[in-house]
Amino acid sequence: MPGVSVRDVDAQKFIGAYAAFLKRQGKLQIPGWVDTVKTGHMKELPPQSVDWFYIRAAAVARHVYLRKSVGVGRLRKAHGGQKNRGSCPSHHVDASGSVDRKVLQALEKIGVVEISPKGGRKISQTGQRDLDRIAQTTVAEDEEGED
Prior knowledge:
Elements: H1 11-25, H2 52-66, H3 72-79, E1 81-83, E2 91-93, H4 97-109, E3 113-115, E4 121-123, H5 125-146
Antiparallel strand pairs: 1-2, 3-4
Helix pairs in contact: 1-2, 1-5, 2-4, 3-4
GO molecular function: RNA binding; structural constituent of ribosome
InterPro entries: Ribosomal_eS19 (IPR001266), Ribosomal_eS19_CS (IPR018277), WH-like_DNA-bd_sf (IPR036388), WH_DNA-bd_sf (IPR036390)
Organism: Tuber magnatum (white Piedmont truffle)
């Protein structure tokens, strides 16, 4: 089915499929601190999933695909959450910049994103091709599941 892009696929299904692809490919460089680090100071514990770095990388790749140019600050805001301040009202807190920076650097090493001349990162041609191919297989799997 021609003409399927990442925009045509449900975000959760696409991120899961692309994370599985990244893990299966084995090229994404995983830092040594992924089992102990928190993803933001609003969190009390580190992520419970063993594959959380692959899932974050897939989410970042999709985010960069959907926008022209994305920097670490914008990703921090997108992955942030509410901080529980006890009896005080909750407030939005940005996520860890180090995690998003390392994800972007890892995606840049495998050629999914590249540095934009206007600042930030943009999706590369090979990255766009890979993401569209995963989106197409995800749509095909959904259609097979409906039958």
